[in-house]
Amino acid sequence: MSLELVSWPSFAIAAIGAAVIAVVVTALIGIPVRYAAKRRGWSPRFIGRVLRPLRALFVVAGLLLAAQLTFPLRDWLPTLDHGARILIIASLGWLVAGVASFAFEVVIERHPVDVQDNRVARRVRTQVSILRRIVLVIVTIVTIGAVLLTFPGVEAVGASVLASAGLASVVAGLAAQSTLANVFAGLQLAFSDAIRVDDVVIVENEWGRIEEITLTYVVVRIWDDRRLVLPSTHFTSTPFQNWTRRETELLGSVEFDLDWRVRPMKMRAELERIVNDTELWDGRVQVLNVMDAVGDRIRVRVLVSAADSGLLFDLRCLVREELVDWIQREAAAALPVSRVMLVDPVTVVDEPEPEETERHVYEGLFSGSPEAEERAQTFTAAIPIQRPIDSEVLAEYDANDPDDVREQARAR
Question: How much of the chain is in helix, strand and coil states, percent to nearest 5?
Answer without folding.
Answer: 60, 15, 30
